[in-house]
Write a structure and sequence with these properties.
Elements: H1 7-16, E1 34-39, H2 40-43, H3 49-60, E2 64-70, H4 72-81, E3 90-95, H5 99-105, E4 108-109, E5 132-144, E6 167-170, H6 176-189, H7 193-200, E7 204-208, H8 211-219, E8 225-229, H9 232-240, E9 245-247, E10 254-264, H10 270-280, H11 283-286, E11 296-297, E12 317-318, H12 322-340
């Protein structure tokens, strides 16, 4: 897999050169043995798909078609639109914050993989087993240690006047990290989360639509702190050889994101889909996650690359139950918009 040495360039390519077709299609006249709907970065040339899909094809002597649909929310939307006549076998990218909608729409077929016994209980975020986890990470603030010598140690520290106009965030309406941070503040502050946001606003340089724009501004030096993941610094160490950018673990904990895959209800190739769900939990798949998807593998037996010494894993992780998110998200978003629009 070819990796760009500059994260900014890689992110620009994700935006400018979205893969809207497939990773590998069956030869003319032949049917695919498995069809997967995935988000763009999974399918990109530096993502996991070019590495893991050939392994599965070789193991089962099958042809896999991976369709790049956009971000994870768009992937789910497409499966919902097609639920009367499903075209995909697997949907990839449903996380703990999107789960309730997927279940409510009844677009998934539960499946209990025998390999789930290897996965830590904290990562099994779907009691119905309609979604099987394949990686996870923690939202975190990444800062430029060449500029910030006294980094914040908590969410409340982010409101300190010394960080005025020094923080870049993402919009929770359009960005999964942005949504993750909004939920993070709700998990910590509860019903008073809007008061926290009022205190935080003076310290925000901007709120971008997506993570790629925000991180590009950060690495370009427009602000010394950005919302990202604890696993962002290993990228810079692995491909740029620098330890300048560091991730913060806060006293109250960091919000967790767990990504999963599910079998589409009415999938054309359900038997092969079950085999793929099994495959994602094996070491053949899991060992590729760290340096392609820049998340943690869910299989604890998989060793992490040396660069992940710069990825602190919080002892305390936070998350809001899927049902609570489903019941309250619209209200929370509306309250957030009122604060940031003042």
């Amino acid at each position: 897999m070819t990796k760009k040495r500059s994260l900014v360039l890689a992110l620009a390519l994700v935006t400018a050169c979205l893969i809207t077709g497939t990773l590998q299609a069956a030869p003319p006249g032949e049917k695919e043995d498995l069809i997967i709907y995935a988000y763009d970065s999974f399918v990109a040339e530096w993502g996991p798909a070019p590495v893991v899909i050939p392994k599965f094809e070789k193991k089962y002597d099958v042809t896999v078609k991976v369709v790049s649909v956009g971000d994870a929310g768009q992937v789910l939307n497409r499966v919902i639109l097609e639920k009367e006549k499903p075209r995909a076998d697997i949907i990839l990218g449903i996380d703990n914050n999107m789960l309730s909608r997927a279940l409510e729409e009844e677009v998934l077929r539960p499946y209990t993989s025998p390999y789930l016994t290897d996965i830590p209980e904290k990562l099994l975020f779907d009691d119905t087993l309609a979604v099987t986890p394949f990686d996870y990470g923690y939202f975190a603030f990444v800062y430029d240690s060449a500029i910030i010598k006294d980094p914040p140690e908590s969410l409340e520290d982010l409101t300190d006047p010394r960080f005025k106009k020094k923080i870049i965030l993402q919009d929770p309406r359009t960005s999964s990290p942005g949504l993750g941070f909004l939920l993070w503040t709700i998990a910590v502050y509860g019903d008073t989360f809007t008061e926290y946001w009022k205190r935080l606003m003076p310290n925000l340089l901007t709120i971008t639509d997506g993570w790629d724009t925000a991180y590009g501004m950060f690495t370009a030096g427009e602000a010394p702190m950005v919302l990202s993941y604890t696993t962002s610094p290993p990228y810079h160490l692995e491909y740029e050889g620098t330890e300048r950018y560091l991730a913060l673990v806060f006293h109250e904990g960091n919000y967790i994101q767990i990504e999963g895959m599910g079998i589409v209800k009415g999938a054309p190739h359900e038997d092969m889909a079950r085999k793929f769900i099994d495959f994602i939990l094996t070491e053949d798949f899991q060992k590729e996650i760290a340096l392609t998807n820049w998340m943690y593998p869910v299989n604890p037996r998989v060793s992490l690359p040396a660069s992940f010494r710069l990825a602190p894993e919080p002892e305390i992780f936070l998350q809001i139950p899927a049902e609570e998110i489903q019941d309250n998200l619209d209200t929370w978003i509306e309250a957030w918009v009122r604060v940031v629009s003042r």
